[in-house]
């Protein structure tokens, strides 16, 4: 697999784990079979774009981020992304290399050997990347995924070292706990997430509007994110992380862009099983 395909598979596995569905149950809710989902989630084949969209729909997830990842992965998978930039700055396909024989048509066997060599390089490199990048078995399923995708990359921070940092870049966003999900008066959703391995929590939001702001705190510094572009409104936005341990109260607040909109907050306790607490608009 390419690095882009690996990133897509990691995101799809995390999303499927969040649904709690087995592969058989996922097949019942989509147009794709159980065996197809096994291949998609193990990185054996690139899933169709529609399969990615259907998984997002089942998980009640905006599909902007996942389809963007799919576009990149498909471009690399199909070879459309393999262009060279010569001195003139204009990209050109690899077949137009500057060589003494560049103008001579290649025979069928020569072209086949080039294709096979390219595929071999991609597969060999992709297998090595998979050893470092893919998460391990998905414990949310009653049909475990292939052990050929071992979890070998752990979180890159813990506790105070995660304060204010990106949960995805620090690998804290793999199979986190969802503390609570809150729907605001404007229709946006705010979700409190927690990674036990990272000892940190954060908020993510979707269905937002340009100018909205989301904040999170766990009794220490407050970290926020502002929705600044149209692309932000079509996918998830994440706050930085707040160090949190079992028993910590994590609080997220949503500030709408509208000047007459009211601030809305929700709280949840790490490790608690009771309902979250939401405050009145402020």
Give a short summary of the structure.
The protein is of the alpha+beta class.
What separation lies between the terminal Cα atoms?
A: 49 Å
Q: What is the count of DSSP helices, taking H or I runs of 4+ residues?
A: 7
Q: Which sequence of SSEs, written as H and E, runs from N to C?
A: HHHHHHEEEEEHEEEEE
* Record field, number of beta strands: 10
Gyration radius from CA atoms, angstroms: 22 Å
Largest sheet: 5 strands, antiparallel
Binned, the helix content reads 25-40%
Q: Would you tell me the overall average pLDDT?
A: 76
Strand share of the residues?
15-25%
- The low-confidence runs, each spanning 5 or more residues with pLDDT under 50, are 83-144, 146-152
Structural class: alpha+beta
What form results from the Cα inertia axes?
globular
Describe this structure in words.
The protein has helices spanning 3-19, 23-29, 34-41, 49-58, 64-78, 108-133, 230-233; strands at 177-183, 189-195, 200-206, 213-217, 223-226, 237-238, 242-243, 249-255, 264-269, 277-278. It is α+β, with helices and mostly antiparallel strands and 282 residues long. The strands form two sheets. Strands 1, 2, 3, 6 and 7 form a five-stranded antiparallel sheet that branches. Strand 2 and strand 3 (200-206) form a beta hairpin. It is globular. The termini are far apart.
């Amino acid at each position: 697999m390419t690095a882009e395909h690996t990133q897509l598979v990691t995101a799809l596995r995390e999303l499927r784990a969040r649904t709690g569905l087995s592969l058989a149950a996922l097949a019942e809710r989509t147009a794709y079979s159980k065996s197809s989902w096994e291949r998609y989630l193990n990185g054996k084949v690139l899933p169709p774009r529609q399969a990615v969209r259907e998984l997002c729909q089942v998980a009640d997830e905006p599909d902007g981020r996942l389809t963007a990842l799919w576009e990149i992965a498909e471009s690399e998978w199909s070879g459309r992304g393999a262009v060279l930039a010569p001195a003139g700055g204009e990209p050109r396909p690899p077949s137009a290399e500057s060589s003494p024989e560049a103008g001579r048509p290649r025979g069928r066997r020569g072209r086949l050997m080039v294709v096979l060599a390219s595929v071999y390089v991609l597969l060999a490199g992709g297998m090595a990347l998979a050893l470092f990048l893919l998460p391990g078995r998905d414990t949310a399923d009653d049909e475990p995924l292939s052990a050929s995708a071992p979890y070998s990359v752990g979180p890159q921070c813990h506790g105070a070292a995660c304060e204010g940092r990106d949960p995805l870049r620090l690998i804290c966003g793999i199979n986190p706990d969802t503390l609570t999900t809150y729907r605001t008066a404007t229709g946006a959703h705010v979700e409190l997430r927690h990674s036990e391995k990272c000892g940190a929590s954060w908020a993510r939001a979707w269905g937002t509007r340009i100018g909205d702001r989301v904040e999170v705190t766990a009794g220490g510094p407050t970290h926020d994110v502002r929705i600044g572009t149209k692309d932000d409104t079509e996918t998830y936005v994440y706050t930085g992380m707040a160090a949190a341990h079992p028993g910590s109260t994590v609080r997220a607040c949503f500030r709408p862009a509208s000047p007459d909109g009211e601030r809305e907050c929700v709280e949840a306790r790490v490790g608690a099983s009771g309902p979250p607490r939401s405050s009145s608009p402020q």
